């Protein structure tokens, strides 16, 4: 499994924060915590972070009702990223290597789920990524493959981040790009609403993957999504969530663009936490 | 229950750190983490942090063998505290209110499980406690009750910390003091070895509570310990662990001396995390 015990501890930290914020009785918080532990033991043999994440959310909804808990966070991050669009679009247009610059911006955008309300963090990250060598660098191959591809499928990750994905898609200047979003709200992951808000539909065909894990899990994806996935010549997978769902496929046409946010993924890729990566299976 | 869901998250953080340090295969770490979650679900209805802590350790031993994992940490904290003994003993001797000063030092000693290797932290904490009003202050009642008591039972908490407990016991100048240690090594809690190392046997009768939870759990204590517990006129319970085991008894002769280290205990006592407390049931 890509996921290991460290992922469970990552979830416990995240749920501790979530429960701290929720205004519900302590008995309900106790029950949710117990069910969180129980779900882990039940899924342990095939523990897979995106699947566990989805199961946790379903369990949580039975106690607090179904709701989009990150709706404000998503709005804020979209607004923040949109406010930076013109600046960075100009930077790409004036770059000597526009594709490379746009890829770097897209990878930098992957910071968004960390520092939503700190525009300084985002801009600082962008400056850092623009000046830092990728730990794994397949940018040239990605460029060449896109040039040859009939169909490109771009798997979105987080709200806000998609503004930089849009700049990269514009920079590709490719006729047939599909941009995939989650099938329903999950964490701060990109949904149809976010894609429309940033005008992603003006540069690509926006599609849903038909499932509400914070990842791309082909087994549960819609038939429409699977058909596009299978026919795509190049797949661009943004972020750790999509990587966790797809890395085991070992397909050579999937490029993983991400900021490495934990040791589990760092070890899988043979890089360090914090590294910036554009890679694929060879 | 005194313990609630937050205690579980406290354990997960502690075990994440522990597993990070242990040089064992990742599969074993996965299994330990799963069993940790499973034990929580099994004990959930009567969740009690000291009992869970003990069960976790037993489970851990089945994977890594029985061992005193904190032996070096205990040696270091004893050595650190002993190096400060003369300074603070003199301070008590020259104090206008020696008992109050000694109680404050004993409460300050309760920081030890946080900052083992940082003598600066310990000394800074001592200065802080010496100048800060107790959030709950039963020092005067404690003094009076000790003066009237035939037998005093002092429940030790952590290694290192016991050097300050020793100063308090010396300052009591009482003929019949029993100092209780854990029945076996558990975390950095005080054992017979620690008590002997700091010379606790020269100022009190050192006894074991006969059980290896990081607390005092009467249900599982030895008959000898229970006999002394029941006949003691004053019981001094150091630290959160002992409080978690004893607070539900609502006995009026138990004084709880501690630094409040988490929100769960803070809420129970109606104080704030970080507060210094000398209290008892009224």
Description:
2 copies of one chain form a homodimer. By secondary structure, chain A is α/β, with parallel strands linked by helices. Chain A folds into 2 domains: 5-64; 71-279, Rossmann fold (3-Layer(aba) Sandwich). Helices cover 54% and strands 11% of the residues of chain A. The first copy, chain A, contains 12 helices and 7 strands. Chain A has helices spanning 5-21, 26-43, 49-64, 71-93, 98-109, 119-131, 139-148, 161-172, 192-197, 223-231, 239-246, 263-269, and strands at 136-137, 152-155, 177-181, 205-208, 234-238, 254-259, 276-279. A 7-stranded mixed β-sheet of chain A has the order 1-7-6-5-2-3-4, with helices on both faces. In chain A, α2 packs antiparallel against α3 (49-64), α5 crosses α6 (119-131) and α5 packs antiparallel against α8 (161-172). At the A-B interface, α1 and α2 of A face α1 and α2 of B.
Topology:
The structure is a homodimer of 282-residue chains.
Chain A: H1 5-21, H2 26-43, H3 49-64, H4 71-93, H5 98-109, H6 119-131, E1 136-137, H7 139-148, E2 152-155, H8 161-172, E3 177-181, H9 192-197, E4 205-208, H10 223-231, E5 234-238, H11 239-246, E6 254-259, H12 263-269, E7 276-279
Parallel strand pairs in A: 1-7, 2-3, 2-5, 3-4, 5-6
Antiparallel strand pairs in A: 6-7
Helix pairs in contact in A: 1-2, 2-3, 4-5, 4-8, 5-6, 5-8
Low-pLDDT residue spans of chain A: none
Number of helices of chain A: 12
The appropriate CATH architecture of the largest domain in chain A is 3-Layer(aba) Sandwich
In total, how many beta strands of chain A? 7
**How would a crystallographer describe the biggest sheet of chain A?**
7 strands, mixed
Greatest interface and its participating residue counts: A-B, 22 and 22 residues
Chain-averaged pLDDT of chain A: 94
Net shape of chain A: globular
In angstroms, what separates the terminal alpha carbons of chain A?
20 Å
For CATH, the homologous superfamily of the largest domain in chain A is named as Uncharacterised protein PF01937, DUF89, domain 3
Fraction of residues in β-strands of chain A: 5-15%
Number of self-contained structural domains of chain A = 2
Tell me which oligomeric state these chains represent. Answer: homodimer
> What is the CATH domain class of the largest domain in chain A?
Alpha Beta
Give the SSE string of chain A.
HHHHHHEHEHEHEHEHEHE
